[in-house]
Amino acid sequence: MIVELTIGRLGAQGDGIAETPDGPVFVPFTLPGEQVRADLAEDGKHAEAIEVLDASPARAEPVCPHFGACGGCSLQHFEMDSYLAWKRDLVVRALRSRGLAVPVEPCRAVPPGSRRRATFALERQATDIVLGYRRARSHDTIGIEVCPILSPKIVAALPALKEMLEPLLGGKNEARVAITETETGLDVVVEGVHPPGTALAKLAGEAAACGLARITAGDETVMLAPPMLHLGKAEVRVPPGAFLQASPAAENEMTALVREGVGKAKRVADLFAGLGTFTFALAERAAVDAYEESPAALTALADAARHTPKLKPVRTHRRDLFRDPLGWQELKPYDAVVFDPPRAGAAAQAELLAKSKVRRLVAVSCNPGTLARDLRILAGGGYEIARVVPVDQFLFSSHVEVVAHLTR
User: Fold this and answer.
1) Residue pLDDT, tens place only, 341-357
2) Mean pLDDT of 200-211
3) How confident is the model at residue 197 (pLDDT cuts 50, 70, 90)?
4) How far apart are the C-alpha atoms of 406 and 381, rounded to whole Å?
5) Which of 178, 205, 180, 181 is nearest to 190 (CA)?
6) What 8-state DSSP symbol labels residue 59?
7) % of the chain surpassing 70 pLDDT
8) Looking at the predicted structure, is the pLDDT value of residue 232 above 70?
9) What is the DSSP string of 303-348?
10) What does each C-alpha distance from 66 to 146, 177, 359, 378 come to in angstroms?
11) How far is CA 231 from CA 134, 154, 267, 306, in A?
């Protein structure tokens, strides 16, 4: 059914929301204040904009020809200053929902073309093999030829990768392809397939021509060069599929904020340390205990620490901080604690930190909602939230990274 709607606000996922007598209607790719003609879905809760009758002054020309069809970006039509203000407001609203009326700094931007990792779908379609992203609100795959958020090296490799990876599908029609840019080449992990016979080994020559450092599929790996990254002064060998911050530019912003947050602390606990994103920067000035569940990440971190001169002592501890968070007595030796959990947050650890005497805490999160919950726990334990800084690591999406400083 074709209807006219007035967009009143943006939802948390970036969709425009029109209030109607029958309830809110979500309209992607629209902005507050706009009048649109839209095709209302049968559920009465979603609509697709057909025409913008009265455009917002904040509407901008999208920078990608795939925008609107590709499901990777939701906000390229939003003028940058307004877009960053909206991202800051996501954090403000999340904190207020937990009763935390604290100042939030302007959202720090990252440049286009700076994302170093992404996950694609490799799909055998009727007449072609497609390597790309899911279509917006669909399980179908759209082939990607350009992507303004991605590193140019990844984009340039996509056409050749599509052809190279086709034999790995075997009898399957689809696989997931995770690509990470490292300093020694692209690291590619193909998931959901078990390559037949020597299919992966036969790709070594083509992989080198594509600028790959390593390709992994199933239980097989072809190594052309160890995938390496610098984290602080350390050179870290990246395990297949390891978590990394999406953008080096955002990582640099967050690392600087983390160092500012711990101040002159002499002994720091780095919780959910991963490969050492913050560990090595912290270890330039303080002894650091790095806690992480992944054995592969912890091994890479420890090996890099052993081979990096002029660091303060770095000790590694394998620990599932969700099931076994550090107790308040274990926290006694630390002047500062940094924690950067997955999207689920760190409620159990926050409860024990709230009972500790640690002077400084730095919380890093990609989920304002769970961060607000954890900060509420810490504030209830007597911590003051001294600083909150959003970082737009996930350009043109509804996701935002946040760094918070707390003091006791």
Assistant:
1) 999 999 999 999 999 99
2) 89
3) low
4) 11
5) 178
6) B
7) 100
8) yes
9) HHHHT-SS---EEEEE--TTTSPPPTTTTTT-SEEEE---TT--HH
10) 8, 19, 48, 43
11) 32, 20, 19, 14
pTM of the model: 0.94
> How many other CB atoms are found less than 10 A from the CB of residue 4?
11
CA distances from 277 to 43, 251, 282 (A): 44, 8, 9
> Which two structure tokens, joined as six digits, stand for 117?
């990792």
CB 282 within 8 A of CB 258: yes
Taking the alpha carbons at both ends of the chain, their separation in whole angstroms is 57
Q: Which of 286, 185, 282, 176 is nearest to 238 (CA)?
A: 185
Rounded to a whole number of angstroms, the CA Rg of the chain reads 23
189's enclosing H/E stretch is: strand 185-191
With 0-12 / 13-18 / 19 or more C-beta atoms within 10 angstroms meaning exposed / middle / buried, residue 232 is buried
Structure tokens at 158: 């996509």
List the structure tokens of 222.
């072809």
Is residue 196's pLDDT more than 80?
no
Question: Which residues lie closer than 8 Å to 199 by C-beta, 6 or more apart?
Answer: 167, 168, 170
Backbone φ, ψ for residue 326 (5° rounding): -65, 130
Instruction: Please give the positions annotated as active site.
Output: 366
Whether 318 and 302 have beta carbons less than 8 Å apart is answered as no
For residue 74, which of 55, 91, 39, 49 has the smallest C-alpha distance? 49
Burial class (CB in 10 A: 0-12, 13-18, 19+), 107: buried
In this structure, are residues 212 and 205 in contact, taking their beta carbons and an 8 Å threshold? no
Angle, CA of 14, 19 and 23, to the nearest 5°: 105
The pLDDT tens digits for 148-195 are 999 999 999 999 999 999 988 887 889 999 999 999 999 999 999 887
- Residue 187 and residue 194: Cα distance in Å, rounded? 18
Measuring CA to CA, which residue among 31, 26, 142, 23 is closest to residue 86? 31
Q: Are strands 185-191 and 212-217 parallel, antiparallel or unpaired?
A: parallel
CA 251 → CA 3, 277, 364, 394, 403, distances in Å?
A: 44, 8, 11, 12, 11
Question: Looking at residues 2-23, what average pLDDT do you find?
Answer: 96
